[in-house]
Design brief:
The protein contains 2 helices and 9 strands, in the order ββββββαββαβ. It is mainly beta.
């Protein structure tokens, strides 16, 4: 959104941004997992949805979709099919989906332990 500010000497154009998602990869582990830190924008969600799903080996919490306006911002940080293993110090193993959403909703900044889909050894399609 652009807004002109007028002054006696000159006109200035200020760019007002609705907020940006800031994130970074903190660590990549030998087992393929990685730690990702995300900060919630001033308004709105983190930009991804999760689903509880079962593979052959386990039931877990997986990224199911990315909001279109966040896809570029999350590129390289999270992708569809990535498994979320931890949020901050909380293990997501055996948690219900509602509890995961509550944990995510309570925080402005989160550190996720993620197993990216591309790092999975089972390479299975998640069955919902």
């Amino acid at each position: 959104m652009f807004r002109k500010k007028s002054s006696r000497q000159s006109q200035k154009i200020t760019i007002i941004s609705p907020g940006r998602l800031i994130g970074s990869v903190l660590a990549i582990n030998p087992d393929g997992t990685q730690y990702v830190e995300l900060s919630r924008p001033p308004t709105g969600p983190f930009g991804f949805y999760v689903v509880q799903a079962t593979t052959t080996n386990n039931t877990g919490i997986f990224v199911s979709r990315l909001l279109p306006e966040y896809q570029k911002l999350l590129s390289g940080l999270l992708g569809i099919g990535d498994e979320l293993l931890r949020v901050d110090s909380v293990s997501l193993q055996n948690l219900e989906l509602e509890e995961v959403y509550r944990i995510l909703g309570d925080r402005e900044t989160i550190t996720l332990k993620v197993l990216p889909y591309k790092s999975r050894t089972d390479r299975l399609t998640v069955s919902l």
